[in-house]
Design a protein that fits this description.
The chain has 415 residues and is an all-alpha fold. The chain has one domain. It is built from 18 helices and no strands. The protein is globular and about 55 Å long.
Length: 415
């Protein structure tokens, strides 16, 4: 008799996110950020109730210290003269996802449905987004003007970039992760829905025209093919041919609708140095303006939430912003978390290949964006780090057995 898998509330987090954002189009009074913060506070209650906050290893200790350090940074944030609301909003965007999803990710469940449900939620989001992108109803334009802070709902503002329901930056990041999950599903289970999902996520990724998202999308493609063809040797050449074919047909199709698309896409890909040059002045100036480079000026001091009260912000370049807000202490702890997560992840790569990819992709995007502070992206990022901290299996398998059982813990729920 087939075992019935238990359903966990947190596995459906991104589906709840999409439904709330969709509802906000028709019910503008919904405050999506506040709503999702309440959901994460419920997850915090779940963790406390089930006594899941124990510190078991060095990664747990680093994350706990990072949370604590960000929390007490409110003491020197208050010296900035900015409203405390700025700190609270930044805390809910950046730190609350750590508290909830790092410790949720640590739970060692072989039947986790989080990635599969997230993948379904993203596909639903992009399909709905395609509809709104082509029809551009007034309530959608008004919703996106509020979400992206564009200051207007002119249809011309929506033609250049695909925003789905989440805004262009979050859509770019999550569509790249959607490509990764689609490739994992195709590699592991070879089901048709994986190929359909790959097509949808890849189209969403391309249409965002986000440089960082495009680069990490390429990384996801290379990473999964390296694992499938060289590391674990579970795919055949025809799968690689299929991938190339679907990319080629999709680009040809989009270019047929917009003859300037291919030229614009190649320009975006080739403009990496321009993107860095556009931002590095702000990076170094922001760090130079920090009052205390050792402990920083407090969480949120230079973030988007502070833009209403000061021009001295660092909207792009998360690492430099961490230095300015949390100082050398904060950036050292953060980088240590990433390094330890990688070490633990690579130690059990067959069960952590998705986690390694997600952490890498978000960290790469953070070079030129504020992605760590995106409440839409932070949960899956910290969930992946938490998965690297779960208890490793104590038994060993032969290489042959590992190859035969390529349904890793990270993707068994994707089948």
């Amino acid at each position: 008799m087939e075992e019935i898998k238990k359903k966990y509330f947190y596995d459906f987090y991104y589906l709840i996110v999409i439904l709330v954002y969709f509802s906000d189009i028709y019910i503008p009074s919904i405050r999506v950020g506040v709503f999702m913060s309440v959901v994460m506070l419920y997850l915090l209650y779940y963790l406390i109730k089930n006594r899941l906050f124990s510190l078991r290893n060095n990664l747990d200790l680093l994350v706990f210290f990072y949370i604590l350090y960000n929390t007490i940074s409110v003491l020197w944030f208050l010296l900035s003269g900015l409203p405390i609301d700025v700190f609270i909003m930044e805390y809910s965007n950046s730190i609350l996802p750590i508290i909830a999803f790092y410790f949720i990710g640590r739970i060692n469940r072989s039947d986790t449905q989080f990635y599969k449900n997230t993948w379904y939620a993203l596909i639903l989001c992009f399909v709905i987004g395609f509809y709104f992108q082509f029809t551009l109803p007034e309530n959608y334009r008004e919703f996106m003007a509020r979400l992206d802070n564009t200051g207007g709902d002119d249809t011309a503002l929506f033609i250049l970039y695909f925003r789905s329901l989440l805004g262009v930056t979050a859509t770019g990041s999550l569509s790249a992760i959607g490509v990764l999950l689609s490739l994992a599903i195709i590699t592991v289970s070879r089901v048709k829905r994986g190929k359909i999902g790959l097509f949808i996520c890849f189209m969403a990724l391309i249409l965002t025209f986000r440089r960082s998202a495009l680069y990490v999308g390429v990384f996801a493609f290379l990473w999964m093919n390296y694992l499938a063809f060289f590391k674990f040797k579970v795919s055949k050449l025809r799968f690689f041919i299929f991938e190339i074919l679907i990319v080629f047909l999709l680009i040809v199709f989009i270019n047929s609708l917009d003859p300037d698309f291919l030229n614009g896409l190649s320009t975006r890909f080739a403009s990496l140095s321009d993107a860095i040059n556009e931002r590095n002045g702000n990076w170094f100036e922001g760090v130079a303006n920090a009052n205390n480079i050792i402990i920083g000026d407090g969480l949120g001091k230079y973030g988007h939430k502070a833009a209403l009260f000061t021009d001295n912000i660092m909207p792009d370049g998360n690492y430099f912003r961490i230095i300015a807000e949390l100082g050398i202490v904060g950036i050292t702890v953060f980088i240590s978390i990433i390094v330890v997560a990688f070490v633990r992840g690579f130690a059990d790569l067959k069960n952590n290949f998705l986690e390694i990819a997600i952490i890498t992709m978000v960290c790469l995007q953070a070079v030129g964006s504020d992605i760590f502070s995106f409440q839409l992206v932070a949960p899956i990022f910290w969930y992946a780090i938490g998965r690297c901290s779960r208890m490793l299996p104590t038994f060993k398998k032969s290489k042959l057995e590992i190859t035969k059982n390529i349904n890793f813990q990270g993707t068994s729920a994707l089948t």
